[in-house]
Amino acid sequence: MAAKRQRGERAGITRAQVLDKALELVDRVGLGGLTMRALGAELGVEAMTLYHYVPNKDALIDGLVERVFTAATPAAAGDDWREHLRAYAHELRMLLLEHPGVLPVIVRPAATPATLDAVETGLQVLTGAGFRLGTALDAINTLTLFVISHTAAEVAIGETAPPPLDAERHPLLLAAATTNAGGDDFTRFAFAVEALLTGFDEAR
């Protein structure tokens, strides 16, 4: 029989595995159900063991933010800036739709080295393309907040029936509802991203 792991003893797991399991747990039970005890049970270790990997609950939440942003950020810093930001925006939206439980905390400031690395990569791409540093940071923050807000609205609204519309009073809205013009989330999202990129180019 294997010896029982002592309280606080380091387990044969990695920080990345801890964060990925925490993300899975949040997907199932929400942030309210994310506790060190519950996460330890998921990983088959004592809750105290997790403090070798994340010192407290805040650090665990910062780690969830890290996993999302690092997965969304293209690795290459030599990309065309438009392609870099476009890929980042679309990937971030998809990750947030897959893990909507992190939406309430995703606006936390970048706190871990890996999250800061992701921001640094974006800044390198933009400043390398001629953006001033402050404008580059504004562009990244603006795009990030747009993606988060749009995705949060998608998750909150979900599938809804159109409101009753009067053909004489709201003919254009009725036509849009009938044809689904302007009703596709992805199309609207992509349109807004391209509009933002055009605006960023003007600022550059």
Automatic annotation (TrEMBL):
This protein's name: TetR family transcriptional regulator
Originating species: Dactylosporangium matsuzakiense
Domain HTH tetR-type: 12-72
DNA-binding region (UniProt annotation): 35-54
Keywords: DNA-binding, Repressor, Transcription, Transcription regulation
Pfam families (alphabetical): TetR_C_1, TetR_N
Organism lineage string: Bacteria, Bacillati, Actinomycetota, Actinomycetes, Micromonosporales
Keyword Thylakoid attributed: no
Origin: domain of life: Bacteria
GO molecular function: DNA-binding transcription factor activity; transcription cis-regulatory region binding
GO biological process, one term: negative regulation of DNA-templated transcription
Keyword Repressor among record annotations: yes
